[in-house]
Write a structure and sequence with these properties.
By secondary structure, the protein is mainly beta. It is about 5% helix and about 50% strand. Strands 1-2-17-6-10-9 form a six-stranded antiparallel sheet.
């Protein structure tokens, strides 16, 4: 990863007051320019499938926010449902509100979740509704990278008009939108439940 989003210092009160540091990382980072923007034309869920190589803890779910630099329309134009599926079943979901209520971190607008685990060796799908807000494609002008414990498998979407549901149709191009923040396994037990503190401090 080219940079760390957040670094947190935590005092362990249950030990001898030792101080440790932990990093909260975006699952995926995006490099892009303006030529990669397109506007979704229908109500569907877009996302991506990934495999986890070590236990990680998710603290927040987020979506790409093109409007971050536009003074006349800051934030998201519409609210978006977002979730993570495992073995075809929706495991975790929330709604990212329109506007600027979500926390903007490096091109993505996040909302805090109750911290939850993704298990080593398992495959998951993350998806979010795309109607009304721009998303970005992985052509020559956009590139995505993931943290070492996550392997990007494939791009998935639903039929037009499907709304919020498991994306299962594979595409050879990427309509990028959803993302999430994670704590790698060594620090998850220490930081369990501190996701809100981390985001509110940004």
């Amino acid at each position: 990863m080219k940079k760390v989003i957040l670094t947190v210092i935590v005092t362990l009160l249950l030990t001898n007051g030792s101080v440790v540091t932990a990093e909260i990382l975006p699952a995926l980072e995006l490099e892009r320019n303006s030529s990669s923007y397109v506007i979704p034309g229908s109500n569907r869920t877009r996302g991506w499938e990934f495999t986890v190589s070590e236990n990680i803890q998710v603290t927040s779910l987020g979506i790409f926010d093109l409007e971050e630099d536009l003074l006349f329309a800051p934030g998201l134009l519409y609210s978006h449902e977002i979730g993570i599926w495992h073995a075809g079943e929706l495991q975790y979901s929330t709604t990212i509100p329109a506007g600027t209520e979500g926390v903007l971190i490096d091109q993505f607008r996040y909302v805090e979740t109750e911290p939850f685990w993704l298990a080593a060796g398992e495959t998951y799908v993350i998806g979010a509704t795309s109607f009304g807000d721009p998303y970005v494609g992985n052509n020559a002008s956009a590139r995505i990278t993931t943290i070492s414990s996550i392997t990007y498998e494939r791009t998935l979407t639903t039929e037009s008009g499907a709304g919020f549901t498991l994306p299962s149709l594979e595409r050879d191009f990427y309509g990028f939108g959803p993302n999430f923040l994670v704590i790698p396994e060594p620090m998850t037990l220490v930081l369990f439940g501190l996701g809100g503190l981390l985001l509110r401090s940004c």
